[in-house]
Amino acid sequence: MAKGSGRGGDAAMIEADGLTKYYGPFIAIEDVSFRVPRGEVVAFLGPNGAGKSTTMKILTGYLAPSAGRARIAGFDMATDRLAGAERLGYLPENGPLYPDMTPRGLLEFFADARGLPKEKKEARIEAVVKQCELGSVIGKAIGKLSKGYRQRVGMAQVLLHEPDVLILDEPTSGLDPNQIREVRETIRRLGESKTILLSTHILQEVEALADRVILISEGRLKFDGTPAELRREGRPLDERFHELTRSGK
Questions:
Q1: Is the pLDDT of residue 249 over 90?
Q2: Mean pLDDT of the region 150-171
Q3: DSSP assignment of the chain, as one string?
Q4: Domains of the chain
């Protein structure tokens, strides 16, 4: 197993330290540890049911671990969740959007909910609309938009408060090839200035976006290293994925 700790000595913006979650006798994740330094885009890879979403919910403070600690920008998400949340943007898979609202209405709602000052609110809405290329649909009902545009609306919402860290859970799930391309371009642009943990089970996401790969299977960390290290000895990613995620391995 390749072990990576990120770029040389940079301060960790995302830290998982021995994260474990039990549901009765069921082990969702066990002793998962990694760190992501500032400015790195990490693909969090694994098959369905591997424990990716559980890990992400613990990292964002939505779920309490049975053991271990999660930190965002140095803030413990069990004891300093509000401080950590100020530095974090979280886009869950199929994140909640209000179908009768327009993108502008939704962004105004979340700007108010986050307490953005009036003088900053309009500037931030304008900035994220441009960043996520929502200008052509800004006045349309969200329920009438394609899934690709809805994903962009969700992305714009999590960027409103200018977070340093983005945690994105399956952001291209269910999209057609053109929509996948558009969302990946948005993530690639964001990766120039943000620390990103991107959950996926799609191997092409690794090739397209990631500086580093963390692979989890059956709730346990199986690999932490670069995409080149994952392709050990020139072997295809799908072959290495199968090798590392086979039951009992």
A1: no
A2: 92
A3: ------STTPPEEEEEEEEEEEETTEEEEEEEEEEEETT-EEEEE--TTSSHHHHHHHHTTSS--SEEEEEETTEETTT-HHHHHHTEEEE-TT----TTS-HHHHHHHHHHHTT--HHHHHHHHHHHHHHTT-GGGTTS-GGGS-HHHHHHHHHHHHHTT--SEEEEESTTTT--HHHHHHHHHHHHHHTTTSEEEEEES-HHHHHHH-SEEEEEETTEEEEEE-HHHHTGGG--HHHHHHHHHSTT-
A4: 1-87+199-249 (3.40.50.300)
Global pTM reads 0.88
Query: Residue 21: pLDDT above 90?
Result: yes
pLDDT of residue 10: 63
